[in-house]
Design brief:
- The structure is a single chain.
- By secondary structure, this protein is of the alpha/beta class.
- 29% of the residues lie in helices and 32% in strands.
- Strands 7-6-5-8-11-13-12-14 form an eight-stranded mixed β-sheet, with helices on both faces.
- It is globular and about 50 Å long.
Length: 265
Protein backbone atom coordinates (compact mmCIF):
# COMPACT_ATOMS: atom_id res chain seq x y z
CA UNK A 1 0.00 0.00 0.00
CA UNK A 2 2.89 2.36 0.69
CA UNK A 3 4.17 1.84 -2.85
CA UNK A 4 0.73 2.59 -4.29
CA UNK A 5 0.60 5.85 -2.37
CA UNK A 6 3.94 6.80 -3.91
CA UNK A 7 2.57 5.82 -7.33
CA UNK A 8 -0.54 7.98 -6.93
CA UNK A 9 0.78 10.58 -9.36
CA UNK A 10 -0.54 12.26 -12.48
CA UNK A 11 1.40 10.01 -14.86
CA UNK A 12 -0.53 6.98 -13.49
CA UNK A 13 -3.96 8.66 -13.55
CA UNK A 14 -6.40 6.94 -15.93
CA UNK A 15 -9.67 8.61 -14.92
CA UNK A 16 -10.89 11.39 -12.67
CA UNK A 17 -14.49 12.41 -12.03
CA UNK A 18 -16.23 15.10 -10.02
CA UNK A 19 -18.90 12.97 -8.36
CA UNK A 20 -21.84 14.18 -6.30
CA UNK A 21 -19.80 13.30 -3.20
CA UNK A 22 -16.50 14.82 -4.28
CA UNK A 23 -13.69 14.01 -6.76
CA UNK A 24 -12.79 10.36 -7.35
CA UNK A 25 -9.73 9.17 -9.27
CA UNK A 26 -8.45 5.89 -10.70
CA UNK A 27 -4.73 5.15 -11.00
CA UNK A 28 -2.79 2.27 -12.52
CA UNK A 29 0.77 0.98 -12.59
CA UNK A 30 2.12 -2.25 -14.10
CA UNK A 31 0.56 -4.50 -11.44
CA UNK A 32 -2.39 -2.72 -9.85
CA UNK A 33 -5.33 -0.42 -10.43
CA UNK A 34 -6.69 1.59 -7.50
CA UNK A 35 -9.30 4.15 -6.50
CA UNK A 36 -8.78 7.27 -4.40
CA UNK A 37 -10.97 10.07 -3.11
CA UNK A 38 -9.62 13.61 -3.21
CA UNK A 39 -8.11 14.70 0.08
CA UNK A 40 -7.60 18.02 1.74
CA UNK A 41 -4.17 19.64 1.75
CA UNK A 42 -1.56 17.84 3.87
CA UNK A 43 -3.77 14.76 4.34
CA UNK A 44 -2.42 11.30 3.63
CA UNK A 45 -3.58 9.68 0.39
CA UNK A 46 -6.63 7.53 1.03
CA UNK A 47 -6.73 4.43 -1.18
CA UNK A 48 -10.28 3.11 -1.27
CA UNK A 49 -9.64 -0.15 -3.09
CA UNK A 50 -7.06 -2.05 -5.14
CA UNK A 51 -7.28 -4.61 -7.95
CA UNK A 52 -4.50 -6.90 -9.16
CA UNK A 53 -4.49 -6.58 -12.96
CA UNK A 54 -3.35 -10.15 -13.63
CA UNK A 55 -5.50 -11.74 -10.91
CA UNK A 56 -8.53 -9.48 -10.42
CA UNK A 57 -10.23 -12.07 -8.23
CA UNK A 58 -7.62 -11.58 -5.50
CA UNK A 59 -8.55 -9.56 -2.42
CA UNK A 60 -5.34 -7.77 -1.51
CA UNK A 61 -5.84 -5.85 1.75
CA UNK A 62 -6.16 -7.96 4.97
CA UNK A 63 -9.04 -5.83 6.28
CA UNK A 64 -10.99 -6.62 3.10
CA UNK A 65 -9.98 -10.28 3.21
CA UNK A 66 -11.74 -10.49 6.57
CA UNK A 67 -15.01 -9.76 4.81
CA UNK A 68 -14.83 -13.41 3.68
CA UNK A 69 -14.65 -14.84 7.21
CA UNK A 70 -18.23 -16.10 6.98
CA UNK A 71 -16.78 -18.83 4.71
CA UNK A 72 -15.24 -20.47 7.79
CA UNK A 73 -18.78 -21.69 8.56
CA UNK A 74 -20.23 -23.36 5.45
CA UNK A 75 -23.64 -22.15 4.27
CA UNK A 76 -25.44 -24.16 1.58
CA UNK A 77 -27.30 -21.24 0.02
CA UNK A 78 -25.94 -17.73 0.45
CA UNK A 79 -28.14 -14.66 0.58
CA UNK A 80 -25.66 -11.78 0.60
CA UNK A 81 -26.08 -8.06 1.17
CA UNK A 82 -22.99 -5.86 0.75
CA UNK A 83 -23.25 -2.27 1.96
CA UNK A 84 -20.58 -0.25 0.14
CA UNK A 85 -19.31 -1.12 -3.34
CA UNK A 86 -15.89 0.55 -3.54
CA UNK A 87 -13.81 -1.20 -6.19
CA UNK A 88 -16.04 -4.31 -6.24
CA UNK A 89 -13.37 -6.55 -4.71
CA UNK A 90 -15.94 -8.42 -2.61
CA UNK A 91 -18.18 -8.95 -5.63
CA UNK A 92 -15.31 -10.22 -7.80
CA UNK A 93 -14.12 -12.80 -5.26
CA UNK A 94 -17.63 -14.06 -4.51
CA UNK A 95 -18.46 -14.65 -8.17
CA UNK A 96 -15.06 -16.27 -8.70
CA UNK A 97 -15.54 -18.63 -5.75
CA UNK A 98 -18.99 -19.55 -6.99
CA UNK A 99 -18.05 -20.04 -10.63
CA UNK A 100 -14.53 -21.49 -10.44
CA UNK A 101 -14.20 -23.28 -7.08
CA UNK A 102 -16.09 -25.63 -4.78
CA UNK A 103 -16.00 -23.28 -1.79
CA UNK A 104 -19.44 -21.78 -2.51
CA UNK A 105 -22.37 -23.92 -3.55
CA UNK A 106 -25.14 -21.46 -4.39
CA UNK A 107 -25.60 -17.71 -4.20
CA UNK A 108 -29.36 -17.23 -4.13
CA UNK A 109 -29.32 -13.46 -3.56
CA UNK A 110 -26.45 -10.99 -3.93
CA UNK A 111 -27.26 -7.29 -3.57
CA UNK A 112 -24.88 -4.36 -3.20
CA UNK A 113 -25.85 -0.89 -2.00
CA UNK A 114 -23.80 2.14 -3.07
CA UNK A 115 -24.77 5.77 -2.53
CA UNK A 116 -22.43 7.25 -5.16
CA UNK A 117 -23.46 6.61 -8.81
CA UNK A 118 -19.95 7.56 -10.00
CA UNK A 119 -18.46 4.75 -7.91
CA UNK A 120 -20.86 2.24 -9.49
CA UNK A 121 -19.89 3.42 -12.99
CA UNK A 122 -16.17 3.29 -12.19
CA UNK A 123 -16.53 -0.19 -10.65
CA UNK A 124 -18.15 -1.45 -13.86
CA UNK A 125 -15.71 0.32 -16.18
CA UNK A 126 -12.39 -0.18 -14.39
CA UNK A 127 -12.87 -2.86 -11.70
CA UNK A 128 -14.75 -5.66 -13.46
CA UNK A 129 -18.05 -5.40 -11.60
CA UNK A 130 -20.26 -7.92 -13.47
CA UNK A 131 -23.03 -6.32 -15.53
CA UNK A 132 -25.56 -8.80 -14.11
CA UNK A 133 -24.86 -7.79 -10.52
CA UNK A 134 -27.68 -6.15 -8.53
CA UNK A 135 -26.47 -2.72 -7.39
CA UNK A 136 -28.86 -0.37 -5.60
CA UNK A 137 -27.94 3.31 -5.81
CA UNK A 138 -29.09 4.65 -2.49
CA UNK A 139 -28.01 5.30 1.08
CA UNK A 140 -27.38 2.09 3.01
CA UNK A 141 -29.44 3.35 5.95
CA UNK A 142 -32.40 4.04 3.66
CA UNK A 143 -32.07 0.63 1.98
CA UNK A 144 -32.07 -1.18 5.33
CA UNK A 145 -35.08 0.82 6.55
CA UNK A 146 -37.09 -0.19 3.47
CA UNK A 147 -35.69 -3.71 3.10
CA UNK A 148 -38.15 -6.60 2.78
CA UNK A 149 -35.64 -9.34 1.86
CA UNK A 150 -33.83 -11.59 4.32
CA UNK A 151 -30.09 -12.30 4.21
CA UNK A 152 -27.71 -14.70 5.93
CA UNK A 153 -24.55 -12.67 5.19
CA UNK A 154 -24.33 -8.88 5.50
CA UNK A 155 -21.02 -7.10 4.92
CA UNK A 156 -20.64 -3.42 5.79
CA UNK A 157 -17.75 -1.33 4.48
CA UNK A 158 -18.94 2.26 4.17
CA UNK A 159 -16.74 5.24 4.89
CA UNK A 160 -16.64 8.96 4.35
CA UNK A 161 -12.89 9.39 3.90
CA UNK A 162 -11.41 7.58 6.93
CA UNK A 163 -14.59 7.80 9.05
CA UNK A 164 -17.30 5.16 9.17
CA UNK A 165 -20.87 6.40 8.76
CA UNK A 166 -22.57 7.84 11.89
CA UNK A 167 -25.74 5.77 11.42
CA UNK A 168 -23.72 2.65 12.30
CA UNK A 169 -23.89 3.86 15.90
CA UNK A 170 -27.71 4.16 15.99
CA UNK A 171 -30.03 1.63 17.59
CA UNK A 172 -32.59 1.88 14.78
CA UNK A 173 -30.07 0.81 12.12
CA UNK A 174 -29.26 -2.41 13.95
CA UNK A 175 -32.93 -3.10 14.65
CA UNK A 176 -33.50 -2.94 10.89
CA UNK A 177 -30.44 -5.11 10.21
CA UNK A 178 -31.93 -7.79 12.46
CA UNK A 179 -35.30 -7.42 10.75
CA UNK A 180 -33.60 -8.18 7.40
CA UNK A 181 -31.62 -11.11 8.78
CA UNK A 182 -32.19 -14.85 8.82
CA UNK A 183 -31.58 -16.78 12.03
CA UNK A 184 -28.11 -17.92 10.90
CA UNK A 185 -26.99 -14.37 10.01
CA UNK A 186 -23.32 -13.44 9.94
CA UNK A 187 -22.59 -9.69 9.82
CA UNK A 188 -19.07 -8.37 9.14
CA UNK A 189 -18.22 -4.68 9.57
CA UNK A 190 -15.09 -2.70 8.71
CA UNK A 191 -14.78 0.09 11.29
CA UNK A 192 -12.42 2.85 12.31
CA UNK A 193 -13.37 4.05 15.81
CA UNK A 194 -11.66 7.34 16.62
CA UNK A 195 -11.44 6.69 20.38
CA UNK A 196 -11.60 3.81 22.81
CA UNK A 197 -14.78 5.28 24.26
CA UNK A 198 -16.44 5.29 20.84
CA UNK A 199 -15.53 1.62 20.38
CA UNK A 200 -16.83 0.72 23.84
CA UNK A 201 -20.17 2.43 23.21
CA UNK A 202 -20.48 0.70 19.84
CA UNK A 203 -19.78 -2.73 21.36
CA UNK A 204 -22.45 -2.14 24.02
CA UNK A 205 -24.93 -1.23 21.26
CA UNK A 206 -24.05 -4.25 19.10
CA UNK A 207 -24.30 -6.60 22.09
CA UNK A 208 -27.93 -5.53 22.50
CA UNK A 209 -28.73 -6.93 19.06
CA UNK A 210 -26.34 -9.90 18.69
CA UNK A 211 -25.44 -12.66 21.13
CA UNK A 212 -21.93 -13.20 19.78
CA UNK A 213 -19.21 -10.78 18.70
CA UNK A 214 -15.68 -11.28 17.36
CA UNK A 215 -13.37 -8.24 17.25
CA UNK A 216 -10.33 -8.46 14.95
CA UNK A 217 -7.32 -6.15 15.26
CA UNK A 218 -4.51 -5.93 12.72
CA UNK A 219 -0.77 -5.40 12.90
CA UNK A 220 -0.46 -2.62 10.32
CA UNK A 221 -3.97 -1.16 10.04
CA UNK A 222 -5.88 1.08 12.44
CA UNK A 223 -9.20 -0.32 11.21
CA UNK A 224 -10.86 -3.15 13.07
CA UNK A 225 -13.31 -5.75 11.79
CA UNK A 226 -16.23 -6.83 13.94
CA UNK A 227 -18.20 -9.98 13.21
CA UNK A 228 -21.72 -10.43 14.60
CA UNK A 229 -24.01 -13.43 14.92
CA UNK A 230 -26.74 -14.95 17.05
CA UNK A 231 -24.67 -18.16 17.10
CA UNK A 232 -21.19 -18.80 18.45
CA UNK A 233 -18.22 -17.25 16.66
CA UNK A 234 -15.52 -19.11 18.56
CA UNK A 235 -14.41 -20.66 15.26
CA UNK A 236 -13.21 -17.21 14.18
CA UNK A 237 -9.59 -17.65 15.28
CA UNK A 238 -6.13 -17.52 13.76
CA UNK A 239 -5.70 -21.32 13.59
CA UNK A 240 -8.96 -21.78 11.68
CA UNK A 241 -8.01 -19.02 9.25
CA UNK A 242 -4.49 -20.41 8.74
CA UNK A 243 -5.79 -23.93 8.01
CA UNK A 244 -8.89 -23.05 6.01
CA UNK A 245 -8.60 -24.24 2.37
CA UNK A 246 -10.30 -21.12 1.00
CA UNK A 247 -7.97 -18.79 2.91
CA UNK A 248 -4.90 -20.88 2.09
CA UNK A 249 -5.72 -20.36 -1.58
CA UNK A 250 -7.07 -16.81 -1.61
CA UNK A 251 -5.65 -15.07 1.48
CA UNK A 252 -2.67 -17.17 2.57
CA UNK A 253 -1.07 -14.44 4.70
CA UNK A 254 -4.17 -13.09 6.41
CA UNK A 255 -3.48 -14.95 9.65
CA UNK A 256 -0.07 -13.23 9.86
CA UNK A 257 -1.70 -9.81 9.51
CA UNK A 258 -4.01 -10.33 12.49
CA UNK A 259 -2.79 -9.03 15.83
CA UNK A 260 -5.63 -10.23 18.07
CA UNK A 261 -9.14 -11.66 17.97
CA UNK A 262 -11.42 -11.03 20.95
CA UNK A 263 -14.74 -12.77 21.58
CA UNK A 264 -17.82 -11.60 23.45
CA UNK A 265 -20.42 -14.32 23.93
Amino acid sequence: MRQLKEDTVKSNLIESQQSAYGPVSVYQNKEYRWLTFALKNNEDIGIQGVMNLKHPEQVIVPVNQCMMLFLLKPVDTLKILNLGLGTAGFERIMYHLQGSTSYINTINTFNTVEINPSIALIAAKHFKLPIKHSTYLQCAEQYITQCSDHFNVITIDIFSREYHQPFLTTDSFWQNINRCSEQNIQVIINLNPQTGQELQMLLVLLRKHFKCLAIIEFNEYINIVIMLSQQTLMHINVDEIQNSPVFINFAPNLYKSINSIYHIE
